[in-house]
DUF2946 family protein
Amino acid sequence: MDDIVKQAMAKWPNVPACSGWLGLDARGQWWLRDEQAQACGAFASGRPGARGSLLRHEKLAEFIGRNYLAESDGRWYFQNGPQRVYVELESAPWIWRLRCTEHGLQLISHTGQELAPEQVQQVLLDEQGRLFLALPQGLGMVHSLDMLDAANALEGGVLPEVQEVDSASLPLKFGFMPSPQVHQV
């Protein structure tokens, strides 16, 4: 977490959290969701306009990534200064990018964190053909553009054997909440 964020939290400790305003899609892109987007429906609903506006500002996306964390109850959030902004997840809390190189498999999160392929605990394939990797950091979906590299890593024995899974079971099994807004009290 950035020092400036920690300082803001200390200065203003009682800022209420918000949800519904930020989404993470299946390609690891952040989406800003104003009231109009939220009125169109849930982030992952597929309804026109429900996602909101794609965040294109690289430095802001990096800032969000550095301050992206999870509550113990499975709600993922961006700590925006003193305010927690709970994130709507299209598929999983993490999106993994994979690259097969001459030095082996490279595994990078959507936030830019490089991870060791040896950390992969499970490889799961759902009914839609989406591939998920479970790591100590949490569950993440493999970016759709990286499926060939994932297949090569599986064939080469770099990743554990694939297990089939029902996508509806993933949030409970891996302890994450796809839509904190739905569970808001």
Summary: The domain at 3-89 is CATH 3.10.540 (duf1285 like fold). The chain has five helices and 13 strands. The first strand starts at residue 18 and ends at 24. Residues 39 and 50 are 7 Å apart (CA to CA).
